[in-house]
Write a structure and sequence with these properties.
This protein is an alpha+beta fold and 191 residues long. Helices cover 19% and strands 38% of the residues. The chain contains 3 helices and 13 strands, in the order βββαββαββββββαββ. A hairpin with a 5-residue loop joins β4 and β5 (78-84).
Length: 191
């Protein structure tokens, strides 16, 4: 089984083939180039951009285990979005296993780092106090948890994920500057 991963070792099934070096998408100039952040051997493969008909490229990719869909970019040049089937199946199986595990999870809150002693988090962007303690929403199965993150909160999580985790109990008193719940904390348990 061939599975592709990114530089962090995370399964990644996506690649894109698009036109580079052409004169505003003009056929006969530039190349179609496969680009991806995973370790597939096709990364960087080039095809001369001699026709807007990319069916031969798609056939070649499908023979190598990719599923392809085509659209046009702003210059009417083809863009082929590719999914490596075996890798995507492995991703789907892993996600299904996690979803099954958390199917009957208890909703709750988690914080990385101790709660402030005064019960007030600081919005570091604006240097202003929140209405309580900033937390993340999470699902819990025993002591295991899974964060429920928006795209924006994923960035926040990366910056504080090395801190100790605490399960937080309390009442929601607002929404923080990053869109996170803010709680009046009743109890904090280190995980």
């Amino acid at each position: 089984m061939t599975l592709y991963k990114d530089c962090l070792g995370i399964l990644n099934s996506k690649a894109t083939i698009s036109v580079f070096g052409s004169n505003y998408g003009q056929v006969g100039t530039g190349s179609l180039v496969l680009k991806t952040t995973n370790n597939c051997p096709e990364n960087g493969t080039r095809w001369p951009y001699i026709s807007a008909d990319v069916s031969d490229i798609i056939s070649q990719m499908e023979l190598n285990g990719w599923e392809c869909t085509t659209k046009l970019d702003g210059y009417n040049a083809p863009v082929i979005n590719c999914i490596h089937i075996e890798t995507q199946n492995a991703i789907d199986a892993k996600l299904q296993k996690i979803n099954d595990k958390f199917a009957n999870a208890e909703l709750g809150y988690i914080r990385f780092g101790k709660c402030p002693k005064n019960g007030i988090s600081i919005n570091h962007r604006d240097n202003t106090p929140e209405n309580g303690v900033s937390v993340f929403e999470a699902e819990f199965v025993g002591k295991e948890y899974r964060l429920l993150l928006t795209d924006f909160l994923q960035v926040t999580y990366v910056s504080i994920s090395d801190r100790p985790a605490y399960r937080i109990y309390g009442d929601v008193v607002g929404i923080g500057a990053d869109g996170e719940p803010v709680l009046k904390v009743k109890k904090s348990v280190k995980l």
